[in-house]
Amino acid sequence: MKKKIWLGIAITITLVFAFIANAFTGNPLSKTIAKQNTEQFLQKTYPEETFHIERGWYNFKTGTYDFTVTGDQLPQEVEMMRAGFFGQHSHYDGVRYSRMDTSLNRRLNEQAGAYLIEAFRSGAPHIRGVDIEFSVMRGELPTHTDWSPTLSFVEEPWLMIMMDATNVSVEQFEEEVQFMQKTLEDLGIQYQSASVNAQLWDEETYELNRQEAEMNPELDIDRDDFWYLRYFASFNAKTKKIETEVYDQ
Questions:
Q1: How far apart are the first and last CA of the chain?
Q2: Which of 73, 118, 178, 235 has most Cβ atoms within 10 angstroms of its Cβ?
């Protein structure tokens, strides 16, 4: 009986160490399959190009299998990240990212964000900002394209909307979110989905940090760092009912 007990303990300890090791370093089988999935993804997504996977490792910070890739049409090596136990999901496509028109995406973001803040303000007075993630690749649009509500994209953008939650009830938050959804529909704006963060200003924490900064001039205290999340919701063009997540301080 004692032998069985010690055997059970030994097996348990082995499994625990194996689990911990897997959490930090992954495992060889999953890495091999993740590499195969990466190769298949590249072949399917970019059938006219040739790629070589140079290195691979498990990234315990993101829980992904990461690979550096070179290719005949890549100016430098890029990173591919695969999520899932066997790397069955694409987490980051470095080939696509390397071909983004970053300056155009930045300008479209600025133009669309400024436009939507004004479009939302009449029915969503607590709007603080709108950040739009565009993924326009070089050659998809002329470099000097200006944003307009009817502009079409190969990959529709994501919206990230910030609101001030001060003195805002859940009901009012949802009314403003519904107004923004309706406004996007009325304007005919393409987007994949939108997330809305309503935040409260943390005056007490800011004041404590400001006082500390007075004694330590090297500290950089930015007021924008002292907001905490109160409400969150997400929607797309087909969302029928806004579901709000409420957070306490």
A1: 53
A2: 235
